[in-house]
Amino acid sequence: MRVALTGGSSGIGAEVARKLAELGHEVTAFDISEPQVQVSRWIKADLSDPGSIQAATDAVSGKYDAIINNAGLPPRDGLEEVILKVNWFGLRRFMDGMLDKLEPGAAIVNTASRAGAMWRDNLEEVKALMSLQPDELPAFISERGIDATRAYNLSKEAVIVMTMAETENLIARNLRMNSVSPAAVSTGILKDFAAAFGDRMVKNVARAGRPGLPEEVAEVIVFLASPESGWIKGQDVTIDGGMSAMAMSEALEISGT
Amino acid sequence: MRVALTGGSSGIGAEVARKLAELGHEVTAFDISEPQVQVSRWIKADLSDPGSIQAATDAVSGKYDAIINNAGLPPRDGLEEVILKVNWFGLRRFMDGMLDKLEPGAAIVNTASRAGAMWRDNLEEVKALMSLQPDELPAFISERGIDATRAYNLSKEAVIVMTMAETENLIARNLRMNSVSPAAVSTGILKDFAAAFGDRMVKNVARAGRPGLPEEVAEVIVFLASPESGWIKGQDVTIDGGMSAMAMSEALEISGT
Question: Would the keyword Oxidoreductase be found if you checked this record's keyword annotation (chains A, B) (predicted)?
């Protein structure tokens, strides 16, 4: 396969690049930093900057078999605007810019997050974000009092909803899209999530036994990018060592029979 | 891997057996009929009969890396009792009988169905079924007026709920379990689903472009049985060519942006 990957220089994305290379696939990595793992080509791209995204997508030619939208910023105080720019607007713009460069039957995989699991409860705000122009973002953030944690969660809610909402359009183009929702993965940004989510994360990790490993998430991303998963469309796959299944079982009083 | 598979003689199960064999895995098939595809061993088993299940699980020795609970009866008029016996009680009994024969880290994969997607709305009835003794089943069916279609849906709701509910118990034993929910797959029993679900199924298949293929479902089952999916626990993965994503997008008015 020929794969376009954002965020290939660290964390989950670096493991995706490594796994794809191991399987003999060609990887074009779009990242602000140069990947440490071997990729076929690195294109420097800043996903918070529309001009940089345009230049990056213009820089590639030929067709791709998959896009993996993995780049994203974690919840970190003061970053609310850039989180929404990169995790939502940048992802959407990059994907739209690459759509015409996809082979028939190609797959798109988005890295969402378990932090986006409440998308249904927050659907009004998600729809508002999805219909927003980028220049309206500062007013949207201040009017709604969106802090960095809410910005992060909202960006991931929007990715999950968009993944579902675009299913019919993509089928009409012989394309498909899915997302993954990892929780508490042991990467360089785990401390940001610990600061943002506190005791809830500590409890979840304790129940699962440990945080997830980036390579465990990468395996699922690669599967969803591959023809073997071809009939999975518009779905979000949770990869969390059972954290949400256990929390849900407890809430619904169905644990252990 | 060494895999215990129920329902390997037809439909999705036959494709699972074929795919596992192709990958060099050892398959023990538990089925009432002899598999047409090559398996390492066939053990005749009737999942509606506790004695037959006991004899079948007693007949194998050594440890397994995965159990694939795939056998199931479709909705067909008059079969309500045997549907619940095979799809729920039989699955549960077979799995419980095999638990001590699993290697550390082994995976269990259950074939549920999109027909079980309403498990949350029907949770009271699902819990009632899950706490039922098999000899109470006829009274349960008649008191609640359960027909074959409801029996089928209920059995699959229970499989999805059990898959989630057992997560913590299984983690304590270093095991994991997930389910798949296919919709409208072109196997020998597709006509039963067409009769049971009528226009809704026709509409879904039209939107997806075609029914699913058994091998498309088998690929995902094999992935969930394999170490590559090791951090996915207690989840249900929908495999439906986008049918439910499109229906959900329509219901929530989020289609196409």
Answer: yes
Is residue A193 assigned to a domain? yes
Query: B36: how many CB neighbours lie within 10 A of its CB?
Result: 12
Q: Which of A169, A213, A257 sits opposite B165 (nearest CB)?
A: A257
Contact list in A for residue B171 (CB cut-off 8 A) is 207-209, 241-242, 246
Q: Tell me how crowded residue B100 is: count the other CB atoms within 10 A of its CB.
A: 9
Mean pLDDT per block of 10 residues along chain A (257 residues) reads 96 97 97 94 97 98 98 96 98 98 98 97 97 96 98 98 98 98 92 90 94 98 98 98 96 83
Q: What CATH number does the domain containing B78 carry?
A: 3.40.50.720
Total structural domains within chain A: 1
0.95 surpassed by complex ipTM: yes
- Does B233 contact chain A (CB < 8 Å)? yes
Contact A245 B256 (CB under 8 A): no
Whether B228 sits inside 8 A of A229 (CB atoms) is: no
The tens digit of pLDDT for each residue in B27-77 reads 999 999 999 999 999 999 999 999 999 999 999 999 999 999 999 999 999
Tell me, yes or no, whether A257 lies in a domain. Answer: no
Of residues A179, A248, A224, the one with CA closest to residue A66: A224
Strands A176-182 and A102-111: what pairing? parallel
Edge-to-edge order in the sheet of strand A41-44: A41-44, A26-31, A2-6, A64-69, A102-111, A176-182, A236-239
Measured distance CA(A156)–CA(B32) in Å, rounded: 46
User: Most A CBs within 10 Å: which of B181, B232, B250, as the mutation test of the A interface?
Assistant: B232
Look up the domain containing B162 and give its range. 2-184+213-241
pLDDT tens column, B118-172: 999 999 999 999 999 999 999 999 999 999 999 999 999 999 999 999 999 999 9
